[in-house]
Design goal:
single chain, 333 residues, alpha/beta, four-stranded mixed beta sheet, elongated
Length: 333
Amino acid sequence: MPIVVSHGSALELLRAVPPQVMAFPRVGTPLDLSRISTSPRELAAIDLSVFGIRRAPVHVLVEKTSSRMKAVDVRTHWFGLPVMPEGLLLELAPGVYVAGPELCFVQMARISSLVGAVVLGCELCGCYSHFPEMISGYYERPPLTSVDKIAEAVDALSGLYGLSRAREALRWVCDGARSPMETVLTGELFLPGRHQGLAFARPELNYVVPLDDAAAAVTGTRSCSIDIAWPGVRRGAEYDSLEFHLDPEKDLRRKEALEHMGWTINTIKLDQMADHQELMKAVALFEDEIPRQPGGRHRWGRSPSCISGCSRPRAAAWASNGPSLVCLCRTAR
């Protein structure tokens, strides 16, 4: 009988190094969940470590009327629909399935905070995966899904309990982030005031600006990309990472080319993101130039500290490592 790996175990596979997930085919037909195995012996016979799933407990999905899989190293999750819609599972091996990125987002959103779900969504729709074993804390890879594909999955799962959290979180997910800190900065700027964001209009991430001949002659390229962009007003914001100034002359040429094309770019440094008052000083340089969401800006009081206890502020809690949130100080590169 088939086994369906889900939730945190599915996320572990999606983040596995080397990134294997793109090699697994999607299941192209609906799956009758009454056929799903609840036998711990059948699960134990599968070496999930070859797929990058090494942590216990292993999370598995069963049909809502099925019995729990009785094993100390297994966590059972009941699925509220009798049939799994097509395209939401990946096939690891014959009879071994795992939740794809869209279904994994829905599952993890239900057990995460809304901000945590947004951060995860930006990772899945972005060009990186968290991987604590690497020095940077993440590695680059092509996007696993997109906001549109997750929205289609949410529609296909209509009637599933807890779907409202995924639907609400998806409103604030953006495609195209290239690092955890880009996601953090996007959250700072885009999330609404009720979620402690600045409520700017939806940006485009890593927006590509074509260059005319004069600008291209300066940079030696035909285009430049901007981390967080509002094309309608030709304004952008970028995270000034530790690697940003490896080639100061190249950075200057890029800045001059973008200014020639009518763009104004503001950079925000780690210490500004880690200090609410300093962040507000940086934002003051462009806040009147970028449209806001209905309701405008939220007037924060004191920012909450980092949950790790190192006195970092609110932004720190937006750098996510799965369902638990970690501090800026562990993800900044």
